[in-house]
Design goal:
This protein is mostly helical and 101 residues long. The chain has helices spanning 3-20, 25-32, 35-50, 52-69, 75-88.
């Protein structure tokens, strides 16, 4: 995982701590569970398809979803939003890719 992706995941972890009033990043990661892997995969895939600004947009969307719903967006919602961001940026998303699944 690259530094850019790590930075975005740290921001998501911080949002998790704020929203769920968790004292440590480790607790935030544990509460978030396997969905964090989906967020990492989504950010990575969007960055590869549409670039860093699009990946940042996805990370910000994840953070906003956590804030507004006080729940973690599912992997499916992350894939759908990531694919939409790529398409809105003028990029195609293959049905064979993680985003197009």
């Amino acid at each position: 995982m690259g530094e850019f992706t790590r930075e975005l995941l740290r921001e998501i972890d911080e949002t998790t701590q704020e929203v769920f009033d968790l004292g440590t990043r480790a607790a935030a990661k544990k509460k978030e569970g396997s969905r964090r892997k989906a967020y990492e995969k989504g950010i990575h895939e969007v960055r590869d398809v549409a670039g860093k600004p699009a990946a940042r947009e996805l990370a910000e969307w994840i953070q906003e979803e956590i804030r507004s719903t006080e729940k973690f967006p599912t992997a499916r919602r992350v894939r759908k939003r990531g694919a939409a961001i790529c398409r809105e940026s003028g990029h195609e998303v293959s049905t064979g890719s993680w985003l197009g699944a």
